Amino acid sequence: MKPYQAIDCGHYDYLELACIRGYPLKIELLQGEILHGKALITETRPDKSEWLLVQTTTSNRAIRMDQLLAITPEQEGAEFGRVLIASAGSEI
User: Fold this and answer.
1) Mean pLDDT value of segment 8-18
2) Rounded to an integer, what distance in angstroms lies between the CA atom of residue 53 and that of residue 37?
3) Long-range contacts made by residues 24-28, C-beta under 8 angstroms, separation at least 24?
4) Is residue 59 within 8 Å of residue 43, measured between CB atoms?
5) How far apart are CA 16 and CA 13, in angstroms?
6) What pLDDT, on a 0 to 100 scale, did the predictor assign at position 2?
7) Largest pairwise CA distance in the chain
8) What gap in Å lies between CA 54 and CA 90, rounded to an integer?
9) Claim: this prediction has a pTM higher than 0.90
10) Which residues of 61-80 are buried (b: 16+ CB within 10 A; e: fewer)?
């Protein structure tokens, strides 16, 4: 995997809000994978990479934020809609 590339601060705010509210999310990854899970927490690791922890139906999963294409809350009345984190042409 390539060195971590920080995401835009504005996008990070949406991820934090999703965690605070415990939103169930549709998570689109750059590689094309789609996940569904509840946003739990964000964390910064010692190497300065940032991660989103989500609870799926089978396990908890950590997703490196620069691998996110988009998130969409799957809760009616959510405070935001689909947020494009990276462009589909971004490097993996």
Assistant:
1) 95
2) 9
3) 24/73, 24/74, 24/75, 25/54, 25/71, 25/72, 25/73, 25/74, 26/71, 26/72, 26/74, 27/52, 27/54, 27/63, 27/68, 27/70, 27/71, 28/68, 28/69, 28/70, 28/71, 28/72
4) no
5) 5
6) 86
7) 37
8) 23
9) no
10) eebbbbbbbbbbbeeeeeee
What is the residue whose two structure tokens read 């691998």?
67
Over residues 23-56, the pLDDT tens digits come to 999 999 999 999 999 999 999 999 999 999 999 9
* Amino acid residing at 81: G
* Alpha-carbon gap, residue 89 to 43, rounded angstroms: 26
| Identity of residue 14 | Y
pLDDT value at residue 87: 56
Q: Which residue has the tokens 């971004």?
A: 90
- d(CA 37, CA 60) in angstroms, rounded, equals 9
Contact 73, 80 (CB under 8 A): yes
